[in-house]
Specification:
380 residues, alpha/beta, five-stranded mixed β-sheet, 32% helix
Length: 380
């Protein structure tokens, strides 16, 4: 009995040991399997890229903000606003203050913004740029008698505004019809910067006609196209002599007679000079020559006209039709000495050719400037 109990105990002990061994072995086997599987997983996703595996490239994307980079005032009287990308805008006019405002949404002033330098004879009184929330407001104020209007823009990164004297037009034309008509060789004669001394003298230079009014037309020549370059060169010559010069127009725009005179009075000009070209009926095409008109009864006007006429004839060799009195509006209504120069006849083939020649235009303009200078020097 004792032996049997001992045998049974031995058997139970062996069996327990065997079961424990088996259970323990299964647990170890399971844990090994887990680790082995984890090791396999970690090997399929390398921690570092191998030399043959390209690294991912991160591209930094930044929004390009709309910035106004430049504001300029061109030779043909245009305010040009430039941006670094396409822009939209709205315009408003404050009739009380005369302020013309351009509002550009989601825009700001560029760090390297270029601003214009306004000449003493500029029709623009001031320009102000102001950040209002996310919008940029550009306010432009002209001197009395001048106006600003939009022109068609060919570049979506620009805004173009035309500055000109108030015309006789009562209703604005569509933008597509209000673009300034380019003048022949207009880029060759930039608007001169005014650096003159007002104490030396103020000259108002008036280029006749313009816009819808071509003036005299003959032999393929339009009066408005030849008197403008002569006027601009005249102004440049006078400025080189130290005079302050104002212009009634610097591009192809139509202006009534009254604003021309009003500008001369407003700037307190010492001399008013209007540039024109003559014409006669085709039967009188042989008629030619230069004549300079002054107001009736004006002693100073007659003296000024005589000096200018003499200088023109000496410089150009044109036929001398003398200085004469006339009742033209711009002569009769101005309070300062005023003259109207008829630079030649477009109905005469030879003179039409001369008036279209830039070299002849230059000689004509410089001669007029010399005559005005001679008059002012003697009078002062």
């Amino acid at each position: 009995m004792q032996y049997r109990q001992l045998a049974v105990g031995v058997c139970i002990s062996i069996a327990s040991s065997y079961i424990e061994t088996i259970f323990s072995s299964k647990i170890e086997a399971h844990e090994l399997s887990f680790h082995t599987t984890r090791d396999r997983l970690t090997q399929t996703i390398p921690i570092e890229s191998t030399p043959n595996t390209p690294r991912p490239v991160l591209v930094e994307v930044s929004n390009r903000h709309l910035e106004i980079t430049r504001l300029s005032f061109s030779a043909n009287g245009q305010v040009i606003i430039e941006a670094n990308q396409s822009l939209s805008y709205q315009t408003t006019i404050d009739r009380t203050s005369g302020m013309y405002k351009v509002t550009i949404p989601n825009a700001k002033i560029a760090a390297n913004f270029q601003r214009p330098t306004l000449a003493a004879n500029s029709p623009i009184e001031r320009i102000r740029l102001e950040q209002v929330g996310n919008s940029l407001e550009i306010s432009i104020k002209t001197i009395a008698g001048w106006q600003i209007r939009e022109t068609q823009r060919l570049n979506n990164q620009q805004i173009k505004l035309q500055v000109s004297l108030n015309s006789v037009l009562q209703s604005p034309k569509p933008i597509s019809q209000t673009n300034p008509i380019p003048l022949p060789n207009s880029n060759a004669t930039p608007l001169p910067q005014n650096t003159g001394d007002r104490r030396r003298g103020v000259i108002l230079v008036d280029a006749g006609h313009g816009g819808r009014d071509p003036g005299a037309v003959a032999n393929g020549v339009r009066e408005k196209d030849i008197v403008l370059p002569i006027s601009l060169i005249l102004g440049q010559s006078l400025q080189s002599m130290g005079y302050t010069v104002y212009y009634t127009r610097t591009n192809d725009v139509e202006i009534d007679l009254e604003p021309r005179v009003a500008l001369a009075e407003r700037v307190n000009a010492d001399v008013f000079v209007s540039i024109h070209a003559n014409s006669l009926a085709s039967l009188n095409s042989a008629v030619n020559g230069v004549e300079t008109f002054h107001a009736r009864g004006s002693t100073l006007g007659r003296e000024l006209a005589s000096y200018v006429q003499s200088q023109i004839i000496a410089s150009t060799g044109a036929n001398d039709r003398k200085a004469k009195a006339a009742g033209f509006y711009v002569l009769a209504r101005t309070s300062m000495p005023a003259i109207l120069v008829e630079t030649g006849f477009v109905t005469n083939a030879r003179e039409a050719a001369n008036l279209s020649d830039p070299n002849y235009q230059k000689r004509m303009a410089e001669a007029i400037a010399k005559g005005i200078d001679q008059f002012i020097r003697i009078r002062r």
